[in-house]
Specification:
This protein folds into two domains: 7-121 and 265-279, Probable inorganic polyphosphate/atp-NAD kinase, domain 1 (Rossmann fold, 3-Layer(aba) Sandwich); 127-258, Probable inorganic polyphosphate/atp-NAD kinase, domain 2 (Tumour Suppressor Smad4, Sandwich), CATH 2.60.200. By secondary structure, it is of the alpha+beta class. The chain has helices at residues 19-32, 41-46, 71-83, 107-115, 184-187, 271-279; strands spanning 7-12, 36-39, 64-69, 88-92, 122-132, 135-139, 142-147, 154-160, 163-170, 172-176, 199-205, 215-218, 223-227, 234-238, 242-246, 251-264. 19% of the residues lie in helices and 36% in strands. The protein has six helices and 16 strands.
């Protein structure tokens, strides 16, 4: 079934190469399709326009978000787009780009496939809900508890579904979605998990006990983490974008969010093609 798209919101990585020409070309293409555009304020300024909006306001006012940049740019808007049930098309203007997977020469074939309602273009991605000190946060990739640059090793209590699992001594702990399994968790020796697998990854960061290995647990699990260390710089970081400092006995509760992000994929490649391309698996000696 053909999708009706009336307004597209566009966010950008301001210092990406050729961003002005790519943005201008995209707007002209959307205009030919009789689709309106709302630009974030930094994107509007790139084209000397005055009608830009704060990035955070865009998802609630559009039918589709297009991200011109890298994964960090997409992560900054993903949780807001998911809450507004707005799909996101990520165009890779960075280096790696697991989330912003669509290259610039495939923008319009991907947009056409999405609008025409073709199967396999939308990839649902589960988010995490994290609660700490009475506040709730949402993230697409991961929730991370880690020490500051000059802090010593920290100790973390871990409960899964109200059962105590461990008192981990390490530099920190990553709780990642399947989407986030190719992010920070991968650098911490965590497994790669296909996006549609109903699972979460718990990956320790430089654990003192070598027997504490990365774990895959059910997506329906409820995770409780308590900081047991005092006097150190410790932070709770969400998607590498937002964060707060933690003190001794602070508790972070994590579970799946009640909503998903609809990520638009290029019709020219599947998930394993993406892994081969981004991780160099297809490289020949």
């Amino acid at each position: 079934m053909k999708r009706k798209i009336e307004t597209v919101g566009i966010v950008i990585k301001p210092h990406a190469p050729n961003i002005e020409s790519i943005l201008r070309d995209l707007m002209q293409n959307l205009e030919k399709r009789r689709i309106g555009c709302l630009l974030e304020d930094v994107a509007a300024r790139k084209l000397l326009l005055k009608d830009g909006l704060p990035r955070e306001e865009l998802p609630a006012r559009v039918d589709l978000m297009i991200v011109l940049g890298g994964d960090g740019t997409l992560l900054s808007i993903a949780h807001l787009a998911a809450q507004s049930h707005v799909p996101v098309l990520g165009v890779n203007l960075g280096r790696l780009g697991f989330l912003t997977e669509v290259p610039t020469d495939e923008i319009y074939i991907t947009l056409d496939s999405f609008i025409q309602g073709k199967n396999g273009v939308l990839s649902p991605r589960r988010l995490l809900e994290a609660r700490c000190r009475g506040k709730t946060y949402y993230c697409l990739n991961d929730v991370v508890i880690n020490k500051g640059a000059v802090a010593r090793m920290i100790q973390i209590g871990i409960w899964i579904d109200d059962k105590e699992i461990a008192a981990l001594k390490a530099d920190g702990l990553i709780v990642a979605t399947p989407t986030g399994s190719t992010g920070y968790s991968l650098s911490a020796q965590g497994p790669i998990v296909q996006p549609y697998v109903p699972a979460l990854v718990l990956a320790p960061i430089c654990p003192h006990t070598l027997s504490f290995r990365p774990m895959i647990i059910s997506l329906n699990s409820r995770i409780r983490i308590q900081l047991l260390t005092a006097g150190e710089e410790v932070y709770l970081t969400l998607d590498g974008q937002r964060g707060i400092s933690l003190g001794k006995n602070d508790v972070v509760e994590i579970e799946k969010a009640a909503f998903e992000l609809s990520l638009i994929s290029s019709p020219k490649r599947n998930y394993f093609d993406l892994l081969k391309e981004k991780l160099g698996w297809a490289a020949t000696p």
